[in-house]
User: Which sequence fits this backbone?
């Protein structure tokens, strides 16, 4: 049994182990790596299951980031899970901690009180995580304008303060 024609929505289901194996799983003698049953039934399942959250989404670039190393050119985690993985890597914040900070600030920018929106599957976030570049401690969440302006100010802080004092 070869690969299914439509890779987006086909999986193989093993009746012995009751697991689904995606189209790239080898069938036949190598199938023992995945389970004990050699013969599997081909079934149609709508969508692709994200490796992390387990939700099913259409296998398109709308829901999955591009990856040239993958056989179909897409990553195996949905964009939302990739986003929270990036937040965890960059700022050492879990998804819960990130949302807690967002809620503590009443869903507003810490400086200008502009409303912030969390990232959804099809929208980019309006939130910038403000953190100290020396200690990497997260200070809060800002809108893009405040984050850029704060960064500009912090780079020129001494010069600005000297200028203001000379008046």
Assistant:
């Amino acid at each position: 049994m070869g690969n299914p024609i439509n890779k987006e929505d086909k999986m193989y289901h093993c009746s012995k182990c009751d697991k689904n194996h995606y189209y790239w799983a080898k069938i036949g003698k190598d199938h023992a790596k995945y389970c004990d049953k050699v013969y599997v039934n081909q079934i149609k399942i709508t969508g692709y299951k994200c490796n992390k959250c387990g939700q099913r989404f259409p296998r398109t670039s709308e829901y999955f980031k591009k990856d040239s190393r993958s056989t179909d050119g897409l990553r195996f985690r949905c964009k939302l899970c990739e986003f929270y993985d990036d937040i965890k890597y960059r700022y050492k914040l879990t998804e819960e901690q990130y949302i807690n900070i967002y809620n503590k600030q009443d869903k507003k920018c810490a400086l200008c009180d502009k409303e912030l929106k969390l990232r959804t599957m099809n929208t980019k976030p309006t939130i910038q995580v403000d953190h100290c570049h020396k200690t990497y401690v997260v200070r809060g969440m800002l809108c893009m304008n405040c984050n850029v302006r704060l960064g500009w100010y912090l780079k020129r802080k001494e010069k600005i303060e000297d200028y203001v004092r000379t008046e």
